[in-house]
Amino acid sequence: MKSVLTRLAATLVATVGVIGLTTAPAQAATEITAHLEIGFNNGVPAARTINLSVHVPMNEYDANGYLIHGARIQVRFYGSDPGTDPLLYGPVTWYKDDYGLTAGPDGIHLDYGWEVPQGSFLNEDSGFANNGDEVYIVAKFIDGDGATISAQSNTEEGLY
Ligand SMILES: [Ca+2]
Ligand SMILES: [Ca+2]
Description:
Keywords: Signal. Residues 1-28 form the signal peptide. The chain is of the alpha+beta class. It has one domain (27-158): Immunoglobulin-like (Sandwich), CATH 2.60.40. Helices cover 19% and strands 44% of the residues. It has two helices and nine strands. The chain has helices spanning 2-23, 60-68, and strands at residues 33-41, 47-57, 72-79, 87-95, 101-104, 107-117, 133-142, 148-152, 156-158. The strands form two sheets. Strands 3, 4, 7, 8 and 9 form a five-stranded antiparallel sheet that branches. A four-stranded antiparallel sheet has the order 1-2-6-5. The chain is elongated, with a radius of gyration of 22 Å. The N and C termini lie far apart (74 Å). It binds calcium ion (CA) (2 copies). One calcium ion binds at residues 79-81, 124-125, 134.
């Protein structure tokens, strides 16, 4: 009787193992790109528009697998300065089903936008002689096991 139970247990473990294999991502994610766009909304009051675009290329099957297994995209804003670049905002993290994070035929996308008032965290330099602001993001793709790849975006410059 004991051996039958042992064999049953072994069969169950093997079955679970097979299911795990078929749903886990087949390929490790190796590529990530990040783009930042800061614009102007000339309404009243005037605002700055922020649009993030992060892409992790892979097939749709893997994209869904990663998100189901806890993968997320994490974004931090930095100001470009001589020496060390200060962290301006974040981290902000998007998980499966969060607005803006999607899995599609060409991989995982984060497309997210919002508005901030003039003089927000984007105003990273506010000196008399140095008022221009240079802002970029660093986006990380962190899988369910914690493996991380990251990318730095373009730098947006303006009076934010
Ligand atoms: Ca700066
Ligand atoms: Ca400024």
